[in-house]
Amino acid sequence: MTATDTTLVIGATGTTGSRTAAQLIAAGHRVKAASRRATPLPGTEPVRFDWYDPDTFGDALTGADRVYLIPPVGDPDPAAVMLPFLQQARAAGVHRAVLLSSSAILEGGPAVGAVHQALPGLFDQWTVLRPSWFMQNFTGTHAHARSIREDGIILTAAGTGRVGFIDADDIAAVAVRALTDNRAPNTDLVLTGPEALSHDDIALIMTEVTGRRVAHHHLTYDATRDRLATQIPLEFATMLADMDRAIADGAEDRTTDTVHRLTGRPPHSFRAVAERELAHGS
């Protein structure tokens, strides 16, 4: 990648988008930071972008030759808006795309799985990032983090199932390599942290780091689905509850070496991330 190449980061104010944009800028790359309010970010060119407003696509794509894709949040069928954009992106000269998906969603699966399936047919250079659940879910603005701050509890139907929780900084570091290396991975990459932890383990570490007791409350599948459905559409709530059930059945009990292999350093532990982010008041 040369200094004249430009990456369009969609969702540039979000958890991984903001970190990816910052790391690209720090490495000397040009970034168009796309968000619904065209929020200025240090060193970037802010641009307004809304998945549900195709009139914003053209300006966002102008001058960009690669794109980091954050799907629309909470949409059970993101392909309906993403595929027309990606076709327009290819026509506009974008030749590399990096898509944020999930370790829980396979190619051709529900939600963003359909976009994953289509990506290789649209771009010669592509990558699908499939990270495990974010460590920042417990330290940032996610419902888990709010529940911890307000009530000292984590509510899931995941039982004692373990997850290779990953730091969003590590996801961004892999995204930068996928966007800027001379050769794109042209595959999907499952990203995890260094160890698989249960939500009980997370609660214990949070208790030790914060000095305030945090407990994991084990909910049933139905209770989890119904609780989520009061906040988000039922279809999406059901999908999230299904993911908890899959965790309980061991689907996320794994770790990979992808972060180390692509960045040259090991991924951060949950304890290190909790100490870092809580110390900064996140």
From TrEMBL:
InterPro entries for this protein: Ergot_Alk_Oxidoreductase, NAD(P)-bd_dom, NAD(P)-bd_dom_sf
Pfam families (UniProt xref): NAD_binding_10 (PF13460)
Annotated NAD(P)-binding domain residues: 11-181
PANTHER family hit by this protein: PRESTALK A DIFFERENTIATION PROTEIN A (PTHR43162:SF1), PTHR43162
Protein name, entry field: Oxidoreductase
Annotated organism of origin: Streptomyces natalensis ATCC 27448
